[in-house]
Design goal:
Layout (H helix, E strand, L loop, with lengths): L18 H48 L3 H49 L15 H5 L11 H4 L3 H23 L4 H29 L9
Helix pairs in contact: 1-2, 2-5, 2-6, 5-6
Length: about 220
């Protein structure tokens, strides 16, 4: 008969000595995922703003050379369309990154809850949330947008991109109106109206995205 000790099969779940190593590995994995999301968001926003800045400079030089003639409007139609396309795909990806980040935050919350089940005495030293569902509710994870949260939402990177996109939409509509020979009043009015409609559509897209993606399920403690 072998003298090797028989493995303790009774040790399961958080009582397993490997549990802490597994939880720690998962925690670092979620931190890395959040960091990659932030880097991608900043990178996309930087590319978009750079292209937008180049578009403005190019149109300024073109306007000076042609005395803001029809050639400027035609070139502006092309450049603004390209900038708007990049802005739209940037916004769509940012909304998805925000959703992914909310998932990672909820996941780390669950891991902290598991840590406290292993060593309950550590609870006074945890600053972040550690109760299941708390972070998800604070993030309004999967919930529709409310008017009371609109002020906070306008400070996010995706909201800044949405605002720039709306300005581009208004500029594009004004450009088309000017090319069609519309008067100054109609050009300005159509541009403002298009910008407002675009802003509303951006908000509605983000809200629908949140509703379509259900929050993470509650986990039993």
């Amino acid at each position: 008969m072998s003298d090797d000790p028989v493995p303790e099969r009774s040790k399961k779940g958080l009582n397993d000595p490997r549990a802490v190593d597994i939880l720690t590995t998962e925690h670092w994995s979620l931190l890395s995922a959040r960091a990659l999301g932030y880097q991608e968001m900043i990178g996309r926003a930087t590319i978009f703003v750079t292209i937008l800045s180049g578009t403005v400079i190019a149109l300024t030089l073109m306007a000076q050379a042609t005395q803001f003639g029809r050639e400027t409007l035609l070139v502006g139609l092309l450049l603004i369309s390209v900038a708007l396309f990049i802005g739209l795909v940037t916004f769509i990806r940012m909304v998805a990154i925000n959703y992914e980040d909310a998932k990672w935050v909820t996941g780390m919350n669950l891991l902290r809850h598991a840590y406290l089940q292993i060593v309950p005495e550590l609870e006074p030293f945890f600053v972040a949330g550690h109760e299941p569902g708390v972070d998800r509710k604070a993030l309004a994870h999967g919930a529709p947008q409310h008017a009371r949260n609109l002020a906070n939402s306008l400070t996010t990177t995706s909201s800044v991109v949405a605002a720039l996109n709306s300005i581009l939409v208004g500029s594009l509509v004004s450009d088309v109106a000017a090319l069609c020979g519309a008067g100054l009043t109609l050009v300005a009015t159509s541009g403002v109206a298009a910008s407002l409609v675009s802003a509303v559509l951006h908000v509605r897209y983000a809200a629908r995205f949140r509703r379509r993606h259900a929050p993470l399920p509650e986990r039993s403690s």
